[in-house]
Amino acid sequence: MKIAMIGTGYVGLVSGVCFSDFGHDVVCVDKMPEKIAMLERGEVPIYEPGLDAVMARNVDAGRLTFTTDLAAAVDGADAVFIAVGTPTRRGDGHADLTYVMAAAADIARALTGYTVVVTKSTVPVGTNRKVAEIIRATRPDADFDVASNPEFLREGAAIDDFMKPDRVVVGVESERAQQVLGDVYRPLFLRDFPIVFTDLESAEMIKYAANAFLATKISFINEIAALCERVGADVKSVAKGMGLDGRIGNKFLHAGPGYGGSCFPKDTSALARIGQEYGVPQRITETVIAVNDLTKRRMIDKVMDLCGGSVNGKTIAVLGVTFKPETDDMRDAPSLTLVPALVGSGAKVRVVDPHGRKEGEALLPGVEWLTDPYAAAAGADCLLILTEWNQFRALDLKRLADGMNAPRMADLRNIYSRDEVLAAGFAAYDGVGRSQPLADSSASRSAAE
What we know:
Blueprint: E1 2-6, H1 10-21, E2 25-29, H2 33-40, H3 51-60, E3 64-67, H4 70-74, E4 79-82, H5 98-110, E5 115-119, H6 127-138, E6 144-148, H7 158-163, E7 168-171, H8 175-184, H9 186-190, E8 195-198, H10 200-231, H11 235-243, H12 264-277, H13 283-306, E9 315-319, H14 335-344, E10 348-352, H15 357-363, E11 368-370, H16 373-377, E12 382-385, H17 397-403, E13 408-411, H18 418-423, E14 428-430, H19 438-448
Parallel strand pairs: 1-2, 1-4, 2-3, 4-5, 5-6, 7-8, 9-10, 9-12, 10-11, 12-13, 13-14
């Protein structure tokens, strides 16, 4: 089948590359000539493990091409996917559909035969019907159907998620469109991966509901973590005991500095706004958003307390600033709250992140970028772990402590245990959702003095 993918951002590029690996002929379209030129040189503009190899394989096979010419890409296509950005609109929290609607109009002008126009971008309920209205208004003679096909890709594991999905969700209104999308996803159907065909509105809602639920699990365990610290419980044990219940599951029950990234912040915000718009407030989701914001601010207090109440004049080594490991994505990362707060409070901040510098330099002014955790920790007053990259999971803790001015660790991903950190020579340790023993608190105060 011939597929046109409009947009070469994270979703569009991953989807286009994977569809070509299914054996389809795919043309990826973008308005930015420099991005297309980069892709044609075989360079991937985002960091996603394995994407470069799959892309190169399909380019070499002649199944995958890149262009700025939308009309040529759409001409004769069986399916055209809209995979453009839907950022949060400033001021009201709604998803900004400017790019989606512009793409719909451009596609309409380029249609040459029956085509299924598929929205892969995350969009509010009712958007696909608006896309259909735009196409009809632009080209009354067009032969087309619209469909909704939300993505469920985890950054850092997107290739595997696309090739081995939990499910594929497709919203359609005609058997003809269902047949086309069934053929597009035929390789997955043949391997018995679930494909859920439903109506447009349900497909749109599934995406928001799924992300809001996952965000809820994160905010829930982070709120429980705060309580654990007060009552003397360990959130890791609590989460394990909860997660073994098959009705709950262990995924997304890892306490930390709050969620971030390209999906959860904007999708929870958009769902809350949709609820308000339709007079059905999404109180749980609204609370999830508030708890996430409070969690990020609580992490600032942790570092301050660990440093004796002030970071002014102190050196803080920060390990990891991307919102999660195996991605270079900085969108709504907890680091964007914590690091500026530390810099603004007078701290000298050194940052180490395997892939975060490209975006981080503009987003985190006033910090020093290093590549070696030990160099960053040398002479530092506190070591702050913000992103659980594999490189930070097996550090030589004694070497770190020996090189620091005041060896304190704020382990906001609970990578290490308090006992092993203190045994390595650190004077103080604080994690998330772990009670602070009196002896440890005394050591912290002594180190601060």
